[in-house]
Fold this sequence. Notes:
- This protein is mostly helical and 85 residues long.
- The protein has one domain.
- The chain is 82% helix and 0% strand.
- The protein is built from four helices and no strands.
- It is flat.
Amino acid sequence: MNMLQQLASQTPVWVWLLLAFLITRGIAAMKPGETSLQKLAIVPALFAAWGAWSISHRFGASLTAWSEWLAGIAMGAALAWLLLN
């Protein structure tokens, strides 16, 4: 129990606020509804930008790293296209 108390007491306040926000968003997402493709594209775009930054930061101009990353992006885009059509 001591470890759980330390974990809870040493967690920053912003993490608890983020957890509360994510829980409320998750509960709201359980209700049926429609959303636009633009809203659906926000998170994948953020992850793609984060991935590109990570590749450039870790591997620089490595052709192998960039080609593997682009292949993954292409497979994801193809899968999304198949699911939407």
